[in-house]
Amino acid sequence: MIASLRTVSGGRIDRNKPVRFTFDGRTYQGFAGDTLASALLANGVKLFGRSYKYHRPRGVISVGPEEPNALVGVSRGPGRFTPNLRATQVEIVDGLDAKSQNRWPSLDFDLGAVNSLFAPLFSAGFYYKTFMGPNLFGKNWAWTHLFEPVVRNAAGLGDAPSDPDPDAYAQFYEHCDVLVVGGGPAGVAAALAAGASGARVIFCDEQAEFGGTLLSETQATIDGASAPAWLARQFAALAAMPNVRLMPRTQAFGYYAQNFLGLCEVVSEAERLANPDAPRERQWQVRAKEVVLACGAIERPLVFPDNDRPGVMLAEAARVYLNRYGVKVGRRVVVATAHDSAYRAALDLEAAGVEIARIVDLRAAADGEWPRAARKLGIEVTTGARIAGVRGRLCVKAAAVASAQGVEWIGCDALLVSGGWTPSVHLYSQSRGKVVWDAEREIFVPGVSVQRERSAGACKGVFALDRVLRDGAVAGHEAAARAGFSAQGPVANFDVAGAPESSGGLLGDATPSRGAKGKAFVDFQNDVCASDIRLAVREGMRSIEHVKRYTTTGMATDQGKLSNMNALAIAANALNAPLPKVGLTTFRQPYTPVTFGAFAGASRGDLFDPVRRTPIHEWAEDQGAEFEDVGLWKRAWYFSREGENMHAAVARECRQVRESVGLFDASTLGKIEVVGPDAAAFMEKLYTNPWAKLEPGRCRYGLMLNEAGFIIDDGVIARMAPDRFHVTTTTGGAPRVLHHMEDYLQTEFPEMKVWLTSTTEQWAVIAVQGPRARDLIAPFVEGVDLSREALPHMSVREGRICDVETRLMRVSFTGELGFEINVPPDSARAVWETLWAEGRKYHVVAYGTEAMHVLRAEKGYIIVGQDTDGTMTPADAGLEWAVGKAKKDFVGKRSLSRPDIVAPNRKQLVGLLTDDPILMPLEGEQIVAVANPTKGSHAIGHVTSAYASPTLKRSIALAVVENGRARMGEKVFVAAEGRTMPVTICDTVFWDKKGARLDA
Amino acid sequence: MPSVMTKPVARPRGPLDGRALPRGEDFRLAVSPAAGRILLRGDAAVAARASAAFGAPLPTRSGAVGARSDRAALWLGPDEWLLIAEGEAPAEIIAPLSAALADRAHSLVDVSQRQIGLDVVGPNAARALTAGCPLDLSLAAFPVGTATRTLLAKSEIVLWRRAPEHFRVEVWRSFADYVASYLSEAARRAPRAGGFA
């Protein structure tokens, strides 16, 4: 297909590289270097999408990231679908498949456009007004059942992708001395100046090609060279600087605290073809010593009736499409402007053979160099005129020019507009800087720097090319100097010709007072009209923050890049207040939308979180273990034999431990080595128990409280030497406990000579539990007398097992004779397998965390975090025995005498036995005093643990009940959905109350 | 007591044994040789006295490493050093230190098997590390002979630059798989050229 609006030559596209792509199912051809917008315009496509609210036909209005209308969904294969991309930023590649959005059934014929007929319903604040009633079937009925589903369906942007994204995304941290944001003339000059100083420079631009406005500059010369030739020379110089990193296709989307900026790099098709491992996007988190913002300026549209018709376009955008992409946006155009720069666009178009039917200048006079040049060429200029309307629904056919002479319709296929230029202060604003109002030129410019940044060029209101270049060079110099790099020579001067300064500009509503009807749009993406803003003011909105929220102006994905200033001016005019008084809203990150992938990076699937596995993990896997997550750890939950369900497996594991012996992987237990001359004194402070008199070689159950007196952790603690404790913590509590200890050591007891070292992973732990435990390990243990007398319950010895060193503890969390064998983790699997092989003699079983829970519950041993909930004291948990009564102080001690802690009727830990042994309460179920309590009556407690006990052949439960220990034998009820279960309160120890088995 | 069977039953197994690690020109990962690792805590006088006993100087400057042949002392805090002795049993390092420090308050804890070393080598080594480590790893900011405790994505690590393109990552063993996978992934996704690090 011949691209009918393509110029014969020129532009920066590669005419030798045709690219085929589809848009709404139709195949088109463009060239390498085209964007989707330029390629479609070249093919004569004017209609790009439908608007958000009214489903008005819309074309492309701009050429950059500010585009509000031409939003498309782009598919690059299954799962590779991205909605809401700006056609002006999508580089075309072979096979690209783009779709228009917010239309049904098709773009040309969209049933949603019927919304336009109901436009009065959708005026400002329509959410708050229209949908208040009727509440036929209850509160908000109309909204939830009638309006919302319809509105949600009809309004909105593209479809969210439904398949997993098969592409990779990556994130990197980066540091530099100077970050230059924006690749236009100011940025180029800044990067050159900073680069020459030797500073590490990152120079980024959101486009595929650096150069900004210079890429579409045909008239100006710099240092005697054409703009493209000058650019090529500068980039050759930059490429030769190893300290300068050029990052095209990289949007600086966010400016955060301490000069931390977020950059999103779209990886080029060329890199992805050369390297199949290349990700789709890379997010760079850059810490820059100094920042130069060279973000340019954005041309403003004019607000007049039907100013949203396809074919109405910003004047400079038309110039860029022509000069950079070789695309004429029309054959016969009308230009409406309040700024000289549109004349420059008209001249370029005229030179390319486009007929300029009229230049309509809204100003009373236009005497700048560009207007003079246009007149000299014979282009007809009407000053003091406005656009009263536009004919043509799917494409502009004619524009109505209203002047003192009346209204004149002029036929055209494109209407180019310019209301002047708005400096892009977004990143400056994100850096928390406050913009300043330049009343003469009616622009907001950056004020005082809050962070280490400076703006340069058009984004700070410097527009003439020679001054822009100079400003950039000064900024680059200064940034490098501030970063500690001395400048090489004086700041560069640039000899610029053919770029006279242009001026002008108009803010607000440009609708003529006579002969105008139709909607005059301010915010194209959210379909906000000038009348909506005036209505908001009439209805009492005073601040722009309120106007914005009431009308939704500036709240679309483009954050009002085109609309904010016009909206502000209209509101100020309606309020009859000076513009700065009405205020400018704060710009937020991101500057343009960033994909979720770029934020997720590698953190998905297996890399979402670390998965911690013990040295025994693979063995357990081979044995068919099911695993449960405990913190980041995988723990063997139960070992299912063929055909066994969880219940049967757990019952078997429990029985074998009680009858013979079981092996349990306790490696995940937190371990902290507390060492130093003040180790015992420190332990006295951090745990409720007394430690001073604990002999080396002995262990003690330790209870840890917080300042409020509530239990936060527990564990067995072994004294290895007078100045050394081996502390164990709960698996999930390990980091928290170490932090708690460090916190107190550093802030409350800094004088203590004691140090804390995590040894969780220095020791793997094999728990051997059951009546045959001693028999099983004895053949492999060297240097430790395992006898009942020499190694009583709660003692520890250092020795060897299977020829590796061990800290061998005699401890039990099952109530059986038990050992916990600490071994170096490299050897843990071998020791385990040796014991496992030997264990066949004793009918050994490997048991998981579920059986461990059952066995400990049968003995009434608590699990912190399950049987406690952060509000339980030692007394509540029945652990008064673990509190050293004679101790002067420990963390939490003072709180234990608080009135509410010693008050009667606190919930206390008790056992529960159901009257029917088959019935099983559930954890968390409420306990009530009577069988059928009236609705809303008080619960006296709740179940904390409940299991089927294979040992007792019945259900058992632990619970907290008000004043529970005084209610032994009392009947209460577990209340749950649809049933009430009679239970009897009992002691927490269900098995071997005397502990004879423990002492075997 | 029954007779003792102390024959070693199998060779020790590290957390990354049997795992394929990247061995490209630009980026290589390898598990470092076995080493004795001791965490020493104590004041400056302890450090001074420990230097002689350990055989490598314990630095007092933040981020510094005192290295001599196959021994290195990494400064991790004002009162904290990680001592690494390649190919040596921890007991052999602890014994002389204990003796030398007997009359001064200190803490010596064997962490030889708590963590493993990963050697990250190649022109892309620094770049891959910056995928998860927020530090400036340029040679100017993080020169050879620098070590620090830091983060690699969601894992704590100790990072030690041994040569311009050779880093040692010390990581707790259960995080080793995550760190190796994260670095491998990062190296695959890194740009092939460019960057200052």
Structure summary:
The complex is a heterodimer of chains A (about 1000) and B (about 200). Chain A is an alpha+beta fold and about 1000 residues long.
Total number of β-strand segments of chain A? 51
Structural class of chain B: alpha+beta
The average pLDDT of chain B is: 93
For the record, the CATH class of chain B is: Alpha Beta
Whole-number mean pLDDT of chain A: 93
Distance between the termini of chain A: 93 Å
| Beta-strand content of chain A | 25-35%
| Overall number of domains of chain B | 1
So how many helices of chain B? 4
> Got a strand count of chain B?
10
User: Biggest sheet of chain B, in brief?
Assistant: 5 strands, antiparallel
Please report the distance between the alpha carbons of the first and last residues of chain B. 61 Å
Give the H and E element order of chain B.
EEHEEEHEEHEEEH
Low-confidence stretches of chain A: none
- CATH topology group of chain B: Gyrase A, domain 2
Q: Give the low-confidence spans of chain B.
A: none
Helix percent band of chain B:
10-25%
CATH homologous superfamily assignment of the largest domain in chain A:
FAD/NAD(P)-binding domain
Query: Radius of gyration of chain B from the CA trace?
Result: 18 Å
Widest sheet: strand ordering of chain B: 1-7-10-9-8
Please, could you describe this protein's structure?
The complex is a heterodimer of chains A (1000) and B (197). Chain A is an alpha+beta fold and 1000 residues long. Chain A folds into seven domains: 14-113, Ubiquitin-like (UB roll); 170-297 and 423-497, FAD/NAD(P)-binding domain; 301-419, FAD/NAD(P)-binding domain; 519-608, Arc Repressor Mutant, subunit A, CATH 1.10.10.1100; 612-669 and 765-782 and 815-868, Probable tRNA modification gtpase trme, domain 1 (Gyrase A, domain 2, 2-Layer Sandwich); 670-759, Alpha-Beta Plaits, CATH 3.30.70; 896-1000, Aminomethyltransferase beta-barrel domains (Elongation Factor Tu (Ef-tu), domain 3, Beta Barrel), CATH 2.40.30.110. In chain A, strands 8, 9, 12, 13, 14, 15 and 28 form a seven-stranded mixed beta sheet that branches. In chain A, a hairpin with a 5-residue loop joins strand 36 (699-705) and strand 37. In chain A, helix 4 packs parallel to helix 5, helix 8 runs parallel beside helix 9 and helix 18 crosses helix 23 (849-858). Chain A starts with 13 loop residues before the first strand and ends in a 14-residue tail after the last strand. Chain B has helices spanning 44-54, 90-100, 125-129, 173-189, and strands at 28-31, 35-41, 65-68, 71-77, 80-86, 107-110, 115-121, 147-152, 155-163, 166-172. In chain B, the strands form two sheets. Chain B has a five-stranded antiparallel beta sheet with strand order 1-7-10-9-8. Chain B has a single domain (28-189), classed as Probable tRNA modification gtpase trme, domain 1 (Gyrase A, domain 2, 2-Layer Sandwich), CATH 3.30.1360.120. Chain B starts with 27 loop residues before the first strand and ends in an 8-residue tail after the last helix. Classes of the chains: A alpha+beta (1000), B alpha+beta (197). The interface between A and B is large, with 68 and 61 residues.
